[in-house]
Amino acid sequence: MPRYVNVALGQLGPIQRQHSRTQVVARLCALMREAHAVGAQLIVYPELALTTFFPRWYMQDEDEIDSFFEREMPSAATLPLFELAHKLGVGFYLGYAELAQEQGNKVRYNSSILVDRSGTIIAKYRKVHLPGHREHEPWRRFQHLEKRYFTPGRRFDVTPAFGGVVGMALCNDRRWAETYRVMGLQGVEMVLIGYNTPVHNAPAPQHDDLSLFHNQLAMQAGAYQNGCWVVGVAKAGVEEGVDSIGGSCIIAPSGELVARCLSKDDEMALARSDLDFCAVYQKTTFNFDLHRRPEAYAMIVQRKGLTLAADGTPWATAE
Ligand code: ING
């Protein structure tokens, strides 16, 4: 009997600064009801899905920054989503800005949670790859201050859920092969990834026309090279004057797209994902036990970047 998961894309259109959490949660609930109506057991929402993408602004006031973060999950504003999940039997992935307390200190993370079909949080992830910059860079049309506002996470875990093995990542994580491989080495069968991706990438504007292509390429590669399903969900459209891509999609272990959102607004799309389809790749082409050669990969963990050798060359010196 195939292990089907009916998974829905819960794409959001723009969230403007004045939109309240209550208004956004109502939109998330509407998407969940739509997903439930077509048989979904899981719906995936974007990164930072409760507020506008605030790292686009340089802020110095601590209270203003903290106003975009959640101190508790669920809170009074987000509880209706958990209650609906319980009522309908639809689990969800939700990205949000987390204000954590660690040894009495405030720590800010770019986080996501996995909630099961009873409405219970069963996993939390904290974004490992924080893109952008730390200091105010006025030359940019808009900032991308994730390195300023968030502390990076340090691990990619997987969770037994929805009849299979589920992993989580956030936005920029999807561009790095290591993200999928670390979870692939834990037997992941479905990776859930919310994102906010501006069309314009200030350091490399020549990439702007390729932003949707790169979005899909990265996730298709991750899916195929690890024999897993990948579900990518956008917060799309023009938020506070900044246009972000849509392109939410569900990708099979073959690397093929099986479902996609077509708009840049709130939109639900569905795919019936057979988790047993992972084996067609994980037990053959990407049978890690049979084919991988870790003894040749040491540099991947030993080096952060192009560690220049004494003579200025980055390449490994032959033994
Ligand atoms: N956003 C973007 C992302 O990785 C980015 C940042 C855009 C990096 C384009 C490089 C190129 O999709 C987030 N939130 O990570």
Average pLDDT figure: 97
Q: What is the chain-wise order of helices and strands? A: EHEHHEEEHEEHEHEEEEEEHHH
Question: Which residues form runs of ≥5 with pLDDT under 50?
Answer: none
- What's the domain count? 1
Biggest pleated-sheet summary: 6 strands, mixed
CATH architecture: 4-Layer Sandwich
Gyration radius, rounded:
20 Å
Give the N-terminus to C-terminus distance in angstroms: 52 Å
Biggest β-sheet: strands ordered side by side in the sheet? 5-4-3-2-1-14
Globally, the shape reads globular
Number of strands: 14
CATH homologous superfamily descriptor: Carbon-nitrogen hydrolase
Helix % is 10-25%
What is the number of helical segments per DSSP (H or I, 4+ residues)? 9
Derived from helix and strand composition plus strand pairing, the structural class reads alpha/beta
Strand percent estimate: 25-35%
CATH topology: Nitrilase/N-carbamoyl-D-aminoacid amidohydrolase
The hetero molecules present are: D-[(amino)carbonyl]phenylalanine
User: Which CATH top level class fits?
Assistant: Alpha Beta
